[in-house]
Write a structure and sequence with these properties.
- It is a single chain.
- This protein is α+β, with helices and mostly antiparallel strands and 359 residues long.
- The protein is built from twelve helices and eleven strands.
- A hairpin with a 5-residue loop joins strand 2 (34-44) and strand 3.
Length: 359
């Protein structure tokens, strides 16, 4: 999710959905104490969803605006129930109008992990927050997966297809020859088969700093429940157990060096084993598994960010591409199976070929 800093929502010249939203708020029970005139932007994301904050009695609430011709609120409601039952701090659903695409949610706070990290907090405070996130991840992976779709070969392959189409072709303006395209397909097949071989659990799919809310940890005067609050989970699937850990450790918006990745990776692995989750007993095996999962996810993200910029005009995502490219290189240079990918990246980046070590 991306922060929104535009003016208060209820001003003249507003778009039609704002008027609909304010009218809907006026129909909700009086005991909620909603002040519809206080509606103001909270955040948006890469989809058509928008979020607003509104004053209500002695608290604030969050309103989701999801245009029904472009978004479906039902997955959000379903996954929220699964995660709530699993002990996660997710928004309560206080009111809903699926016909108009509006949800009224409890507020989980004003500060995402990403926002907090921009203020350069101490290493000790950051570590404490990320241990909270790792504990939450273990709970997510113990949650029921009832009614969720599964990652399969076709879905993974379609996601990886965004890399050659949007990053290589559109963003880098590079045309793949037949051999390079075939080599890339071999890399994709290797990744997909390895990742599908992992045990499957509930996967958030975007378990990273913009979607984790700091709650009581800062002692900011308001209690939003146990840290962290978890949001933006509506795209959850059943998939590889390392997927969300890879999202957290190779965050597209926050750079973590390898020693930090390893530290949190080991701590998660220990928590997961203690909880009885099906992770390998050998950490080296587990380390390779989440690296390969992260490589697949970050290739997809390069394609997604390029598409958001070049198709949707959301140029802010271009600022994150060098970081994601760095994460891709970090893994690809380590394994012989991905040598063709490194050769391609060298051409795209117009860099000298460097020698990495291999496992």
């Amino acid at each position: 999710m991306e922060p929104v800093t535009s003016p208060r929502a209820g001003q003249p010249g507003q778009d039609p959905r704002i008027g609909q939203l304010i009218s809907w708020l006026g129909t909700l029970p009086a005991d909620l104490g909603i002040d519809a005139g206080s509606l103001r932007p909270a955040s948006s994301d890469a989809s058509f969803r928008r979020y607003f904050r509104v004053d209500a009695a002695n608290r604030t609430l969050v309103v989701m605006d999801a245009p029904p011709d472009k978004e479906d609120c039902r997955p959000f409601l379903h996954v929220a129930g699964l995660l709530k039952d699993g002990g996660l701090n997710v928004p309560d659903i206080l009111a809903q109008d699926l016909t108009q695409g509006f949800l009224l949610l409890s507020d989980l706070g004003y500060t995402t992990y990403y926002n907090y990290l921009q203020a350069s907090p101490s290493a000790q405070d950051t570590h404490r927050l990320y241990l909270d996130a790792l504990r939450a991840l273990v709970k997510i992976q113990q949650s029921a997966t009832t009614g969720l779709d599964h990652y399969d070969y076709g879905r993974f392959h379609a996601e990886l297809g965004l890399f050659p189409e949007w990053y290589v072709g559109t963003h880098c303006k590079f045309e793949l020859d037949e051999k390079t395209r075939a080599d890339l397909e071999t890399v994709f097949a290797t990744l997909i088969e390895a990742n599908l071989a992992q045990p499957a659990v509930l996967v958030h799919r975007d378990f990273h700093s913009p979607n984790l809310m700091i709650t009581e940890a800062l002692g900011a005067g308001a209690d939003f429940g146990p840290n962290p609050g978890v949001i933006d989970f509506q795209d959850a699937l059943v998939g590889p157990i390392t997927y969300d850990l890879a999202s957290l450790l190779t965050d597209a918006r926050t750079t973590w060096d390898e020693p930090q990745q390893l530290d949190w990776g080991i701590r998660y692995w220990e928590m997961a084993r203690a909880a009885g989750l099906p992770v390998p007993t050998d950490f080296a095996e587990f380390h390779q598994a989440y690296e390969w999962m992260g490589l697949q996810r970050n290739l997809r993200i390069l394609g997604v960010f390029a598409r958001l910029a070049h198709r949707d005009g959301k140029d802010a995502y271009l600022a994150h591409i060098p970081r994601v490219n760095g994460y891709v290189r970090q893994v690809a240079q380590r394994y012989l199976a991905f040598k063709p990918l490194i050769r391609l990246l060298d051409k795209l980046d117009q860099t000298q070929v460097t020698t990495g070590y291999t496992f």
